[in-house]
Amino acid sequence: EPFVADEYVERLAWRTPGGGSRGGEAFDPKRLLEEFVNHIQELQVMDERIQRKVEKLEQQCQKEAKEFAKKVQELQKSNQVAFQHFQELDEHISYVATKVCHLGDQLEGVNTPRQRAVEAQKLMKYFNEFLDGELKSDVFTNSEKIKEAADIIQKLHLIAQELPFDSLMDFCCYPLSSPGKYHDLECQLIQEFTSAQRRGEISRMREVAAVLLHFKGYSHCVDVYIKQCQEGAFLRNDVFEDAAILCQRVNKQVGEVFSNPETVLAKLIQNIFEVKLQSYVKDQLEEHRKSDAEQYLKNLYDLYTRTTNLSSKLMEFNLGTDKQTFLSKLIKSIFISYLENYIEVEIGYLKSRSAMILQRYYDSKNHQKRSIGTGGIQDLKERIRQRTNLPLGPSIDTHGETFLSQEVVVNLLQETKQAFERCHRLSDPSDLPKNAFRIFSMLVEFLCTEHIDYALETGLAGIPSSDSKNANLYFLDVVHQANTIFHLFDKQFNDHLMPLISSSPKLSECLQKKKDIIEQMEVKLDMGIDTLNCMIGQMKHILAAEQKKTDFKPEDENNVLIQYTNACAKVCGYVRKQVEKIRNSMDGKNVDTVLMELGVRFHRLIYEHLQQYSYSCMGGMLAICDVAEYRKCAKDFKIALVLQLFDTLHALCNLLVVAPDNLKQVCSGEQLANLDKNILHSFVQLRVDYRSSRLARHFS
User: Fold this and answer.
1) Is the CATH code 1.25.10 the one for domain 550-698?
2) SS3 for 82-95, per residue?
3) What angle do CA 274, 277, 281 make, to 5 degrees?
């Protein structure tokens, strides 16, 4: 513990008799002082003793340090001497080793010819046994020494091949014995390999395969291995999965058996493709090749896809340097006869299938498809019939049928989508854009021309004349469905065709074809704008039937309670329905274009209609209310020009009720100032009080 002087003194005083309590009866200061003095003397003696001991230890430490330093110097000198001796010994060892290596080379130079001579002597001994016709050596009679016997037979066989034919004739027994023995031993080794494979003895298989490597029958050994590997491997219905599992299992084993595993595995895969897969593919395709094009194409696509997927799995194995080319050639060898004419089968099936889908639809509607002319005379005739009332033949009554079907479109697009997928998979890369364009052309022919275009033509022919009563405007329904269908067509163009042709010259050709289709349809839609004539005709019928002359010249000027006329209410209701129908049938700028045209014609109709009547003061107010309702209806068009026209018409109607003294002021207002004076005059003339000279004078 650390030394604390105060505590030490306290303990000393406490132990001293008479020093434990100050001021008490037992306290003895003299005795305490005496104890302190004695204790101080003891401490001084102790200090002197400890100091002497410390000085002695310091001297001893200095002495030992000098001795240790001297000893270290002696050891360093000894180490230097030992290192010099080690260098000398190393040089001597190197010298001796050089001599030994030289002696070894000399001994090897003498021993190698001797060993060769011994081996040659053994071969001559075995050769003599073949000449005598008796194989007495243990190496030939002991089945366990088949490896040594194989080595000897192989060497004798090579020697026999180097001897000239004349020399062989001198040894008449040799041709009868050695080649036969070579073949027998080869067969024996292959049989041994086969047995070891059946027993699953990998080490024995590896040993026998190494011996057979130098024999001509080594390839036969590989064939036997491949054949036995496939025994019982293809028991399920999925030959592709069986092949993948087999190759996976063999890949783990072949490296342990053969010295060239990549060659053996490649030969196994080649055998699987050329025998198993080719036979399976042929059985699956030939059954439907001529009888069922749809099933044939589905099977071809499925088999080719599964084969390429198997090839991708096999790419994980070591099959040599260019395994990609190797596997591609194997796939091509199986499918070449089917892929050469694939696109012709595809186009033929797509054409017949699409025609059947369309015909089935028209049959379900009990409709006999008509041949509707699109030439110049037919167009002229149709336009004249629609714009005039000349009897150029009745319009076609479609009974409300648009002849467009979402189901038909989905079926056609689905068939084409599958065709694009097959084309992408089965076409050669160089032929892919061309084949995709042919499929696209079939889609255009049957979807756009035979279905959409036919429906538009039929719809145009079914547009009633402008003087028809209760005409049903089904053409807008045709436009609506055609617009929806074309969006689906455009989506398939972008999603499935574009990836196939994006980097080829066929891209511009397809885009141009699509553009031509759009322009052709827009021409027919523009022709269908004459539907607006029918709408205007319907409005005329409503106004003619509902509007009365007394509406604007009531008999009792003080008893008019209606806000607007019945004719106005029915016309506005009809217009709102048509506007909504147009918005649902079209999209984009087409909506604004058609609504603006309808709005302008609607304004012209109301303008001309109002000029057919004379207006009393209260009748003028009622006309203003009607125009205000028409203007409210015009707001639904959301076209600025149409709203502006009705605002001006509303201002013109104010001329029917304004006081004669304010007439000039109203005519010079913001909305009427720019109008022709004749137009203003024509409205003022509609007032019943116009005959008064005062009103005519104010206006003039």
Assistant:
1) no
2) HHHHHHHHHHHHHH
3) 115
Buried b (16+ CB within 10 A) or exposed e, 615-641: bbebbbbbbbbbbbbbbebbebbebee
Residue 350, judged by CB atoms within 10 A of its CB (0-12, 13-18, 19+), counts as buried
Using 50 as the pLDDT threshold, list the residues of the chain that sit under it.
23, 165, 167-178, 374-378, 380-381, 384-394, 693
Q: What is the pLDDT of residues 623-656, one digit of tens each?
A: 999 999 999 999 999 999 999 999 999 888 888 8
Residue ranges per structural domain of the chain: 39-132, 550-698
Residue 122: which residues within 8 A CB-CB, separation 6 or more? 152
Question: What confidence tens digit (pLDDT) does each residue in 561-619 have?
Answer: 567 888 999 999 999 998 888 888 777 787 888 889 889 999 999 999 998 888 888 88
Whether 274 and 330 have beta carbons less than 8 Å apart is answered as yes
Q: Which residues contact 21 (CB under 8 A, 6 or more apart)?
A: 27
* Residue whose entry in the numeric block shows the structure tokens 């100032």: 673
pTM: 0.62
Hunting for tokens 């001795």 — which residue is that? 67
Contact 185, 178 (CB under 8 A): no
Q: Residue 290 and residue 288: Cα distance in Å, rounded?
A: 6
| Rg from Cα positions in the chain | 58
